[in-house]
Amino acid sequence: MTGLDEFPTGWQTALALVAHPDDPEYGMAAAVARWTGEGRRVVYALASSGEAGIAGMAPEQAGPLREDEQRASARIVGVDEVEFWGFPDSEIRNTPELRERIGETIRRVAPEVILSLYGGPEWAPGAPNQRDHMEFSAAVLDAYDALPADARPRWLFENGPHPTHAVDVEAQVPAAIDALSAHRVYLEVLDPTTPVADQARAQVDRTTTPRDDFDGRRAACFELKRVTG
């Protein structure tokens, strides 16, 4: 099995670009906790407020609630810069407006690293990706490519099933579980029969499993999609 590369270390600021609240917690949060613990800055930017994501709850109630849960979750892993852009949940598309917002945010935050969502059609056979995620991922890549070369962050990674790089997160697994558990109302509605902490633990275990291609270490994994310089 081909080994994964260590995630780059020569950077200070990362920008996580995602579609919905809870997206960072389904794969990135353990790595984020490690990086902020090392003194690095991580900024979260979310296209939507996830207002369509809680069954039986009106969007005008669900959106603010999910924003609050995301801010609480981010604080657990050391992120205190979280912004929501107001694009419509479940209707995110790769539009000029979205690409412009992504490009503006990249220029403003000036990160060396971008973390984005997986854009492929399936996570695994029979496990389709969400359309919002695919459209958003495509918009991030298009916006990055449209930037002048001197304005592009050095690295752009996606958090997905075909990793090229990994971060040892053994010590950060408890924080990642707590971060996902902070989406309490969302998870309670998503699966009313399983305690929130158990849901969170199972998801974090799946995304930080010890890997034979990373010396048996527990890892958060990323696929390098773009590199400049």
TrEMBL record:
Q: Is Zinc included in the keywords of this UniProt record?
A: yes
What molecular function does GO assign, one term?
hydrolase activity, acting on carbon-nitrogen (but not peptide) bonds, in linear amides
Which Gene Ontology BP annotations are present? glycoside metabolic process
> What is the top-level taxon of the source organism?
Bacteria
Q: Which InterPro entries match?
A: GlcNAc_PI_deacetylase-related, LmbE-like_dom_sf
A Pfam family assignment: PIG-L
UniProt keyword annotations, A-Z: Zinc
Instruction: Decide whether keyword rRNA processing is in the record.
Output: no
The name of this protein is PIG-L family deacetylase
Species lineage, top-down? Bacteria, Bacillati, Actinomycetota, Actinomycetes, Mycobacteriales
